[in-house]
Amino acid sequence: MSFIKKPVTGMRDILPEEMELRNYLMDTIREVYESYGFSQMEAPVVEHIENLTSKQGGDNEKLIFRIMKRGEKLAESGEALKNGDFDALTDSGLRYDLTVPLSRYYSNNQAKLQKPFKALQIGPVFRADRPQKGRFRQFVQCDIDIFGDPTNLAEKELILATTEALSRIGIDKYGLKVYINDRRILFGMVSFAGFPAEDAEKILIVLDKADKIGAEGVDEELRSMGYAEESISKLRSILDSYKGSADSVRAMGRDIDNEEIKAACENVADIMESIAAMKSRNISLCFDPKLVRGMGYYTGTIFEAKVESFGSSVCGGGRYDKMIGRFTGQDVPAVGFSIGFERIVTILLEGGCELPKQKEKLAVLMEKGMSPEKVGEIFELCEEERRKGRRVFVAWMAKNKKFQKEGLANEGYGEIREFFNN
């Protein structure tokens, strides 16, 4: 049987030119986040299947790459397979995001970690999704999370750090806008509009489709589910009346007149006003009452960053104060913001992104058959150039030297030195 040279569907090979851009972006993002006091850590890409299927990950739990049990444990599961229990064959899976594994990591190591703990994590995640432009089955996420701070100072820092990172890599020139909401506001809206409280999650799932199916599509789907026209109209009125400014959020809190909703609205307004007070930054932060975020683990503030010209979100996050309690029995305040790295790369590549000046590149071509002594002398020369900060590529001369030199020039090697036997 011959080997297959193409990557597995949904995966891809990354060529050196793009890899250079990716490394630059990761280094820049990491540098910004570390300047805000975030510490880089790492958790395994393989996670316990119980953690991944805990009903916290929304639709992503349908996209898990499961890992089969091995050896005797797999053999012992044979009877379960006969009964159609395929779940019994697996005991772990590849992580579909960084938040669930990070929560396990914090639960396991919190005694050794600073309080509050400001985590920085950059790594691959995996989803058995349908591949399409800008979406793959293996992709990179860049997350920052804060554990142990119950105040909205954590949200403010996440927004500041993430928008600065995106600005530093040049994304803001494409029209970057951050949208904010609160899960408590969402549940309050649904209840205030007269929908059954037990149906709130179903209604929010429909509302989450607003960007794809539009306002009319949302209303029509709610009608098809049998809800009263009065409730649908009232929800639509709320969504259309309160959006944009901090004053609008506070007005919603007054009009709904529920203490929990008032507190949530005040929390969002306070975040917006603190960010707006930054004279040195111009961050576009808007209240969006239809912002849902599909993850089941969110408990409070939620936010997304969108690039207007790209038409979809490039970052997302929120507060998940109940997650750690599922591991330890004791809740710990937690909030995070995640950059969708692949979408960022796609935007920059399509926009003709140019990297800042990199190290000067020198290519050294040697004629074949050169003596060891001569090769050693050339190596010494290359070492000296590297100590000066240059990037040095060494190779034998090809038969088609013109083609070889053209290729090196295309890769940014501005100087090419040739060494011959005589």
What's the CATH H-level homologous superfamily of the largest domain? Bira Bifunctional Protein, Domain 2
Helix tally?
16
Q: Unreliable runs, pLDDT <50, ≥5 residues?
A: none
CATH architecture assignment name of the largest domain: 2-Layer Sandwich
**CA(first)-CA(last) distance:** 49 Å
H/E series: HEEHEHHEHEEHEHHHHHHEEEHEHEHEHE
Overview of this structure, please?
This protein has helices spanning 16-35, 49-52, 71-76, 78-82, 99-109, 153-168, 183-192, 200-207, 210-224, 229-241, 246-256, 259-276, 323-328, 341-350, 372-387, 401-410, and strands at 39-40, 46-48, 66-68, 90-94, 117-126, 138-147, 176-182, 285-287, 301-307, 312-319, 334-340, 361-366, 391-396, 415-419. It is an alpha/beta fold. The chain has 2 domains: 16-45 and 95-350, BirA Bifunctional Protein, domain 2, CATH 3.30.930.10; 361-419, no CATH class. Strands 1-5-6-11-10-9-7-8 form an 8-stranded mixed sheet. Strand 12 (361-366), helix 15 and strand 13 (391-396) form a beta-alpha-beta unit. Helix 11 (246-256) runs antiparallel to helix 12 (259-276). The longest helix is centred in the first third of the chain and has 20 residues, at 16-35.
